[in-house]
Amino acid sequence: HDERTFVMAKPDAVQRGLTGEIVTRLEERGLKLVGAKFMQIDQELAEQHYGEHEDKPFFDELVEFITSGPVMAMVWQGADATRQVRQMMGATDPADAAPGTIRGDYGLDLGQNIIHGSDHEDEGANEREIELFFDEDELVEYTRSD
Ligand code: CMP
C-alpha cells in the first residue's frame, strides 16, 4: 500500500558527504521525496524522537550523537515505503548489514550508522515520526513520472 515514511541522514552521513548518495539511492529505487529539511536537532526533539530508548544504557550517547551536527530529515512516499527503506538501510549494526545496503556500504558502527528509517514493525511509527519533524503543509503532493 502507498504510504509515507520518515528517513533521516544522520550527522555522520552529512559530515562524510553521503547525503546525496542516500537521496539518490532512494530516488532510483522509485520512492518519491515529498519532504526534506536540513536542520540541527535540539536536545528536546532528540529525546522525543528516541523516547522509546529512554531506559537503554546507550540513550545519552544516542542523543549526544544525533544533536552533534546537522541532519537531513526527509519524508519518502511509495508502495510499502517503510519496509522498502528498512531493506535498503540494512541491519542496524553496520557490521551485520549486507553489502549493497546503505549501512553495509557506508556505516562505521552501531552508533554511527548513517541513516534512520521508521520501524515497519512498530505500527504507526512512520506517521508519528513524520509529525514530530514536519508540519503537514511542509509536505508536497505531486506525481512522479517513471
Ligand atoms: P536508529 O535506527 O536511529 O534507532 C536507534 C539507534 O540506536 C540505532 O539506529 C543505533 O544507531 C542506536 N543503537 C542501537 N543499539 C545501540 C547500542 N548498543 N549502542 C549504541 N547505539 C545503539
Contiguous low-pLDDT stretches (5 residues minimum) are none
**What characterizes the major β-sheet?**
4 strands, antiparallel
CATH class category: Alpha Beta
Number of strands: 4
Task: Describe the fold and architecture.
The chain is of the alpha+beta class. It has helices at 11-15, 19-29, 43-49, 59-66, 81-89, 102-106, 125-133, and strands at residues 2-9, 32-39, 71-79, 115-117. The chain has a single domain (2-138), classed as Nucleoside diphosphate kinase-like domain (Alpha-Beta Plaits), CATH 3.30.70.141. A four-stranded antiparallel sheet has the order 2-3-1-4, with helices on both faces. It binds adenosine-3',5'-cyclic-monophosphate (CMP). Adenosine-3',5'-cyclic-monophosphate is lined by residues 53, 58, 61-62, 92, 110-111, 113, 116. Residues 53, 58, 61-62, 92, 110-111, 113, 116 line the site of adenosine-3',5'-cyclic-monophosphate.
Give the secondary structure arrangement, pairings included.
Layout: E1 2-9, H1 11-15, H2 19-29, E2 32-39, H3 43-49, H4 59-66, E3 71-79, H5 81-89, H6 102-106, E4 115-117, H7 125-133
Antiparallel strand pairs: 1-3, 1-4, 2-3
Labels describing this entry:
alpha+beta; 7 helices; 4 strands; four-stranded antiparallel β-sheet; globular; metal ion binding; 146 residues; binds adenosine-3',5'-cyclic-monophosphate; Alpha-Beta Plaits
Question: What's the gist of this structure?
Answer:
The chain is an alpha+beta fold and 146 residues long.
